[in-house]
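User: Please predict structures.

Assistant: First:
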Amino acid sequence: MRVPGAGRTAEAVRAVGGWLGGLWSRLRRAMRTRRGQRRAVQTLMLGCVLALLPSTWMYAVAAGQVGDVARAPRTPVAVVFGAGLWKGEPSPYLAHRLDAAAELYRSGRIEVVLVTGDNSRVEYDEPDAMRRYLTERGVPDRRIVSDYAGFDTWDSCVRAKQIFGVDRAVLISQGFHIRRAVALCERAGISSYGVGVAEPHDATWYWGGIRELLASGKGARDAVLAPDPQFLGDREDGVRRALATQR
């Protein structure tokens, strides 16, 4: 499974792995003495605390703003984050996100779906695959807006606000990712409610949780520094026009 920003996160994981390797080497040398052992334990505890701070912040920001489809408030726009393609079609995790969006549309809780994902290569087009999937499940094409430069969660949130003019949104992702999405979209200026799509707790789920712990560091950095997206571009009125159309 691929989730938003997988390439950037892989680089971050490699960097963290190198840092941890160096830290372990220093700790091993220090632990040859009793004083070194005490310092090693203190350093390890401090490292654990620092590693968990970004995730703790995201949980705090998203508190009370995450639930399931049944509890999602009526909101004009839903944002679905890309999660990879298999042979040109949405991966199972992405399909489940889109199923949730289609259910919200059919129940009248949302009016427009903004699909945001990676289209950095000609042969890889998440937004169009997401659009096809939704139309096959009854969401009118005129009610779907595509963001082709949602390369990671931060980029998707900033572009939803600055390019597409989204002020309020229901965000749809898996449970291990949704709190980061809510926290970052709130930081970008979007009043957000997160729908955490339920999944079996299999190997893919646990890997997603581990990856999310690492990605939370980048998320916290993005929230603090508020960098420009990889691609910003001109403002688009696709969401406004879609909301103006009749069901």
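Second:
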Amino acid sequence: MSGGKDTTTTEGNAVTGPKHVLAVVAPHVGGRTAGAGLATLFPDGARVTVVERADEDPAALRAAHVIVTALAPVTSAHLAAAGRLELVQCASHGFDYVDTAAARERGIPVCTIGSSGAEAQNVAEQTFALMLALAKRLVPAHLALTEADWALPRLQGSLTELSGKTLGIVGLGRIGRQVARRAAAFDMTVVYAGRRRADPETEQRLGGARHVPLEELLRTSDYVTLHTPLTDGTRQLLDAGRLALLKPTAFVVNTARGALIDQDALADALERGALAGAGLDVFDPEPPTAALRLLKAPNVVLSPHVGGVTRETVVRIALAAAQNVSAYLAGDPPRDVVNA
């Protein structure tokens, strides 16, 4: 790293002189290998350092004007150490791994790629992959056949269709709307819960989706899928009390953030047969420890947070994050700020 603080000035939002970008890519989403590809997307004048932890290179952290983070924590201590920092850019729709309150106190905007919709397509597809796997009992059927066990007589009574079922979507943002579109194609009834109701035209485009209170959604849905950000207000949104509202024939699907669900309470419900099953792409923490009961719970389909990491999605995410940072360094206002 080179270039001292006295060589850098700002004009509006634009940074003049050396432009230091710290790209922090967590090991479980590709680490330095993924970060090396991300680094090639920034302007020629940017000095990009790729690390797997924000404090891995203290000099780079001190010099950073921008931190780009891909599911790697950015804590209040990291923010305090980054004396030149002007922007934190999350390479994701989520932002729960950044201390947004501490950033706000320092006047540092934290941005996502939310308006790009980069992850929406694949997260919606992963949601339906989990729902279909649960409905058709694909995992136990596959495992039985690998052991030369023709499991049809045993599984037949538990196989179901998506058609005619009610899908409850918690959070009708960009991803939730993609899920609703697909649900309409499967002839499902869509209800959704969230702070704001969508306009009537949007509801009509989404197959006549209806806005209902969360408790009603939980009581009436055959499938409940979560697509809301993780905040203090949504942490363990599905706790033991709310899980108890679900029908015993209902399924829970989570492709958003693991901490939206009380994982022990969900394991309890599955083990007691109080729920038909769960499809989970996200966990708390990630990667999950071997002690997580959900790994051994009955009637679960699990995937390792693959909802945003197809070849196509990774490219869209990286481009969206780099474009947001490049625009900011060129003088544009920050986009998709979540801590204003």
